[in-house]
Specification:
Number of helices: 6
Oligomer: single chain
Largest sheet: 2 strands, parallel
Helix content: 40-55%
DNA sequence: ACATTGACTGCTA
DNA sequence: ATAGCAGCCAATG
């Protein structure tokens, strides 16, 4: 576990219920300019250990990146329970994208 | 220790 | 508008 990974985890934990964020966005917040894949991988490995809201992370188009047999339906259902609306399998990011402000990031002590 | 693999993204043609 | 590709780097075998 590296510092960057830990940071990514902390950021993911901050995503509020009913909102979503994207891989690239989180990576950028964690200091990775183009680390979307790392975010995905960290989610994969740490979601059970850290009890992360993994369902709130989607790709840059607002679509679920999982395959139909890889948890797609589970993620969609979890998000819908939180009040996230899907329009043809797509989340309108202009309404649901979490935009962290300084207050949110203070929880991650720098 | 080395090679491969991604729950991705943004730029280029 | 659509498609292809290089970059990112932690985890896994």
């Amino acid at each position: 576990m590296t510092d960057t990974s830990q940071l990514i985890i902390e950021i993911i934990k901050l995503i509020p219920k009913g909102k979503v964020s994207t891989y690239g966005r989180i990576g950028k917040l964690a200091g990775l300019q183009r680390g979307a894949r790392q975010v995905a991988r960290i989610l994969h490995t740490c979601t059970t250990k850290h009890n992360l809201p993994w369902q709130r992370v989607v790709n840059a188009k607002g679509m679920i990146s999982l395959s139909k047999n890889g948890g797609y339906h589970i993620q969609k259902e979890l998000l819908q329970k939180e009040g996230v609306k899907f329009i043809n399998e797509r989340i309108p990011l202009e309404n649901y994208l979490w935009e962290p402000d300084n207050n949110d990031l203070l929880d991650i002590d720098f």
